[in-house]
Each structure stands twice: as structure tokens, then as C-alpha cells.
Amino acid sequence: QVYLGEAGGGLVQAGGSLRLSCAGSGRTFSTDHMGWFRQAPGKGREFVAASSGNDYSTYYADSVKGRFTISRDNAKNTVYLQMNSLKLEDTAVYYCAANSRTLRPPSTSEWTYNYWGQGTQVTVSS
């Protein structure tokens, strides 16, 4: 059974940092596109960042560019999201996702990802 498990969420003050991790099991994700999405209360799920399974190039939403970094450790079947300079508007449940269909570059659309974690809460306080 395929499983993605996020960890590392919590409460942090504005301007602070957190590192989320997403460990996979049940399949090897080293050649999958890996993505991070988030969902704030009352809003839809939005794209945050992605790492290509083809060449490991990275993609970011404009709202997090320069502050967040996606990386992966294939030996651990784990993807990370380093979040710096956190803002109040970064408060959300963060989900990791995998897309095993990699003929095209990673998409910002959640519908292209076929494996999902359960999410981890990130709360940024003032």
C-alpha cells in the first residue's frame, strides 16, 4: 500500500522557519514528480512547490518564491519543504503529493497528482 506521511508542522511566529518532511513507502518516489500543496481555512487547495522526477528541477508559487525550498532525499524516499520568513498568510494545512505520470513537467494542478499525504498543520502567529 502506498503511503505518504507529512511531519514537521506546528506553531511558529511570523518571520520564523519550519521544515516539513514527507516520507513515502510502498513505492519508490525518486522518479515521481513531488509536490507540496496547502489549504487555508475556507479556501481551496493551492500549489506551493514541486520537484520534477525527471531532472529534479523545481517550481514555486509566486507567493513563496525566495522563501520556500523543496528538496528530496531519494535514499530516504523523502521530500522536504524548507519554509523561511513565514508570514501569517502561510497558515494552512500542508499536503505532499506524488505524480507518477512524468511525461510532462510537474503541474500546479492538484488533479494531476495521484498519491497524497494526510496533511500537517502550519500555523503562523503574529
Ends apart, CA distance between termini: 40 Å
Count up the helices.
0
Give the low-confidence spans: none
Which descriptor suits the 3D outline? globular
Mean pLDDT: 96
Task: Give a topology summary.
Layout: E1 3-7, E2 10-13, E3 18-25, E4 33-39, E5 45-51, E6 58-60, E7 68-73, E8 78-83, E9 92-99, E10 115-116, E11 120-125
Task: Give an overview in words.
This protein is an all-beta fold and about 130 residues long. About 0% of the residues lie in helices and about 50% in strands. It has strands spanning about 5, 10-15, 20-25, 35-40, 45-50, 60, 70-75, 80-85, 90-100, 115, 120-125. The strands form 2 sheets. Strands 2, 4, 5, 6, 9, 10 and 11 form a 7-stranded mixed β-sheet that branches. Strand 5 and strand 6 form a beta hairpin. It is globular. The termini are far apart. The relative contact order is 0.31. The model has no long low-confidence stretch (mean pLDDT about 95).
